[in-house]
Specification:
Length: about 400
């Protein structure tokens, strides 16, 4: 059996059913899997992955293994499906270091465990694998060993571009593709976030005054789907062009200060830290539902909220109540983690089929074209995006 640190291996049977359903609905990866079985682009190589450990990711892991890869994987705090983790270990022999209740410190240890397995390629989500290889002496040897990498998300790409002058290998940024931005961030996150809020609260969305903070690709989706469910949506964005776009789409636009006091639901999705602090929490109405769809929970200053709240209580699986000094209550959903993963199942299956197809072909590109790319974060080659879009069109239309 593989190396692993997971919640409970006996959950594997349950995981099998969920992975099975996902794989039935991932025709793009199925087609790439067929190709990889013949070409074996990863023969003898280990891929180190940081991506939410859940059924769609498991189907992707199988695709990479069909291409000859050995895989080590970790996820993010609160987003791991423990049954999927068990299935990956028991059925596929994958090295899995992930469990649902892990803390951020556990997460960083798990990043180290993936790198301790000496990967030849890395597939990152948020930039932690990259940060360890670039910053920590014990992983310095990987700076030369790693052939290439991918980075999945907006936050990770920004972090890589802002943090490093010298980069040791080429990283293809999946989020830079129009395909991912439009289909995953807009439609996938939009549907997933509202699904999660409804599951977590079992409340009616119709008529709820909702403030969406951040009107990038993800925020556009969240605003669109909330409106579709009957909510009155107000958009807040620092960028006047984004505000203008929201206005032309028929949304209310406002400053944060004006948008908070009336809101029944507040959703952050900016990719930036410290968007909501104690001053903003104090402006919210009693009983507001607060959640985050951006990559890191630090969009909200939760340590300050936890420290300064008069009382703190868990009301339901995904709902915590914080009583402020002014007597108002804030109901925080999913502990501030990515709500669509914390309280639901992440992006819809077809959407991840497309995103993970981009990942698969990008990793194969590193193997098939070694030493051709600059050592820096960069866009996915256009032909990959075109190929995946054609496969998606064929499968979905
Ligand atoms: N929940 C998920 O499954 C999921 C999926 C993909 C990406 N993400 C994450 O969602 C976040 C947003 O991604 P995106 O692709 O929409 O990014 P984006 O860059 O397209 O949009 C972010 C928007 O937020 C605005 N903004 C930044 N700081 C702000 C502030 N303080 N107040 C108001 N607006 C502000 C920007 O002007 C921009 O319009 C990132 O953290 C990304 O990693 C989450």
């Amino acid at each position: 059996m593989s190396q692993h640190k997971i919640e409970d291996i006996d959950l594997a049977e349950q995981g099998k059913l969920r992975v099975g359903w996902a794989s039935l609905n991932m025709p793009i990866l199925a087609s790439i899997c067929e190709q990889f079985e013949k070409t074996k682009p990863f023969a003898g190589r280990r891929i180190g992955i940081c991506l939410h450990v859940e059924p769609k990711t498991a189907v992707w892991v199988q695709t990479l293994m069909a291409g000859g890869a050995e895989v080590s994987i970790t996820g993010s705090p609160k987003t791991t499906k423990d049954d999927t983790a068990a299935w990956l270990v028991k059925e596929c022999g994958v090295n899995v270091y992930a469990w649902n209740s892990e803390t951020f410190d556990d997460h960083l240890e798990n990043i180290g465990r993936v790198l301790d397995d000496d990967p030849d390629l890395i597939a990152d989500n948020g930039g932690d694998l990259h940060a360890f290889v670039h910053d920590k002496a014990e992983y310095q040897h990987l700076q030369q060993k790693i052939i290439g990498a991918t980075e999945e998300t907006t936050t990770g790409a920004t972090r890589l571009r802002e943090s490093y002058d010298s980069f040791y290998f080429p990283t293809l940024v999946i989020n830079d593709t129009q395909a991912k931005r439009i289909i995953e961030n807009r439609y996938g996150v939009g549907q997933g976030v509202i699904d999660a809020i409804m599951r977590a609260t079992r409340l009616l969305m119709g008529g709820k005054r909702t403030t969406v903070i951040g009107y990038g690709f993800c925020g556009q989706g969240v605003a669109k789907y909330m409106r579709g469910a009957g909510a009155h949506v107000t958009v807040v964005d620092l960028n006047p062009l984004a505000q203008l776009e929201a206005h032309l789409e028929g949304f209310q636009t406002a400053t944060l200060e004006d948008a908070l006091p009336d809101a029944d639901i507040v959703i952050t999705v900016t990719g930036r830290s410290g968007v909501l602090g104690m001053a903003e929490f104090g402006q919210m109405k009693d009983g507001v539902l607060l959640c985050n769809a951006g990559h890191f929970e630090d969009e909200m200053e939760l340590p300050a909220l936890r420290e300064q709240a008069r009382t703190q209580e868990t009301l339901d699986q995904h709902i915590e109540s914080y009583e402020l000094l002014n007597g108002n209550h804030i109901y925080l959903l999913g502990e501030g983690n990515l709500i669509n993963l914390a309280a639901a199942d992440g992006n819809p299956i077809e959407v991840m089929d497309l995103g993970l197809a981009l990942q698969s072909l990008s990793l194969a590109f590193h193997m098939e074209h070694p030493k051709t790319l600059q050592h820096e974060p960069q866009v996915v080659p256009y032909e990959i995006e075109q190929r995946v879009a054609s496969l998606a069109l064929k499968a979905w239309s």
